Amino acid sequence: xxxxxxxxPPRIYRRIRSREAKARPGARELEICILAGGxxxxxxxxxxxxxxxxxxxxSRIKEAAKKTGKSVxxxxxxxxxxxxxxxxxxxxxxxxxxxxVVFLTCDMPFISAELMGLYLKPIARGKMLFAKTQxxxxxxxxxxxxxxxxxxxxxxRGQFSVQxxxxxxxxxxxxIPKRMRSQLLNVNTQQDLERARAxxxxxS
Length: 204
Hints:
By secondary structure, the protein is an alpha/beta fold.
């Protein structure tokens, strides 16, 4: 079998393996992590700090997440930089003491606590829950701690796509009611931001 090249710098790889080895068993069943460390290249500025209706995108989704009553963590710096969202997922899982983590992104300002609640319901151990829109997997998503070695290997192989990650995990689609699907709007570009501002009205 041909060896897979390790695209992760050795120093970072050793540090992460050390973190994994020292990780304590989950003290909580669930935690919510908000990814806020992206490069925001398409928008041209830090998405977490962009204001919408008087609040930053990050503060909007953080407030909604706190309403669930679950512990909320914001991931601003990934353990392995420049790996896209998969780097944030990996970082959240390694740092969390929870058995399972619900991941949100700061560029989804309309996600409600009600929608998050769909991800907080009991699911079979080993199952991962991803949103699926227009045939593509995406956020919000729920991943168990047992996925850490798989995600680490994806990073080592340079496979940073959420779609590739879904292909190697035991993923099922979250059932999101039609009335909630508009909450999945991502603010990736200036055009997306204008759409979001039109949605909330003149206060934005």
